[in-house]
Each structure stands twice: as C-alpha cells, then as structure tokens.
Amino acid sequence: MTPDLLAALATFALVTVITPGPNNLMLMASGTNFGFVRTIPHMLGIGLGFPLMVFCVGLGVMRVFDLWPLSYTLLKAVSVAYLLWLAWKIAHAAPPRAATEQAEGTPLTFLQSAAFQWVNPKAWSMALSAITLYATGRDLAAVLWVAGVYVAMSTISTTSWTVLGQQVRRLLKSPGRLRLFNRVMAALLVATLVPVLWPAG
Question: Residue 62 in contact with residue 56, Cβ under 8 Å?
Fold first, then answer.
C-alpha cells in the first residue's frame, strides 16, 4: 500500500469511526454512567471487534448475502431489535448512588460489544465501503492493512467518546439530569435506525 493510499485510508477510517453512530453514542452513555475504567472492556470490544469484522468481510463474508439473500433481511431484523433493546436499556439506566458514584447495572463486556458489531448497521456500511475502496483486490495484505488502520483509528475514537461521556457526567450531578441525558441518548440511538429502515432514494 502506497503512502498516499495509506493516508487516504487513515483519513477515511477516522472520519467513519469518529462520527456519531450506535457505537459512539453507547460509549458516551457508558462513560457518563459508569466512568472511563469500567467502560474499557466496551472500548476494546469495539476497537478489536470491528477490525475483525472488516477482516472477515474482506475475506468474503458478504458472499453469504449473495448466496442466501434472505440472510440480509434477517440480519436487518436482528439489528433493529437489538438496537431497540439497547436503547431501552440506556433509557432506563438507574442514576448513580451517592455512596458509590457508580450507576446500577453493568456496562457492555468485551464480548458483547465485539459481537454487537455484527448487528450494527453503521458497522456493516463502514466495512463494506472500506473494503470496496481500499482493498479492491481482496488480497490478504490489503485486507490486513485496512483492518490494522481501523484498530488505530478506533483507539482514537473510542477513547474520545468515552472521555466526552465522562466529562458530561460532571454536568449531570442530579439524578433528574442524568435520567434526561440517558433518554436523549436512547432517542438518538433509535434515530440511527432511520437510514436502515427508510434508506434514501
């Protein structure tokens, strides 16, 4: 991969991972409700799980959709259902108890957040675009470059959104404000489904 192509890939990867989407909204909510340290497994699940997904897509996972078109419809249905469940969970997160300053409940684990990439509509769109644009030949070296760049860019993105959520927490000292924040985050998460359910054009 040439330096110019690598720079373009890095820019593309950073823009796609750092813009608002299900992963980042959930990280922000987790940083607010659970703090940075407790959100680290969630961050790692995204930072390693999504590049693994990119790698698998590059090696031909998308052929399943060509061979069995119904699988794409099933994936979309599962994605919508799971995102709605996560939105409900965020909206009903209990405010932190004064004694411990930690919210009740638990943040997503490493495996949960890594598995979530496979039902995340934005992740599928990003993976398909990255492979199509920067690993057109689908050779192993090119696919590894794309996946590796996403590991680096995901580190920047996951850290930034979790820290942002942690800082927002300072403004949400009252249970009422935190509850409102969680409901807004849940509504935004549901809003990310609009392009999936009603695609433009």
Answer: no
